[in-house]
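Lab notebook, design round three. We kept the backbone fixed and only want residue identities now. Task for the bench partner: fill in a sequence for the structure below.
Input structure tokens:
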């Protein structure tokens, strides 16, 4: 990204859960200024959503 100024912030851990009865996104990443890219999980398959919702709800306690 030419012309964009950045500064080092070290590492930030980020977790993202977006859920409803139609789709789910799960992502967890240590964010750094490096070029590595982690992926998350996205699905609109009903069975995958049911299993993922159970997983997320177990994390929420």
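Proposed sequence:
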């Amino acid at each position: 990204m030419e012309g964009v100024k950045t500064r080092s912030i070290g590492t930030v851990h980020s977790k993202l859960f977006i859920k409803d009865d139609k789709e789910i996104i799960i992502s967890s990443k240590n964010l750094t200024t490096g070029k590595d890219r982690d992926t998350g999980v996205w699905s609109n398959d009903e069975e995958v959503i049911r299993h993922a919702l159970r997983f997320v709800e177990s994390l929420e306690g």
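Keep this in mind before ordering anything: The first strand starts at residue 12 and ends at 19.
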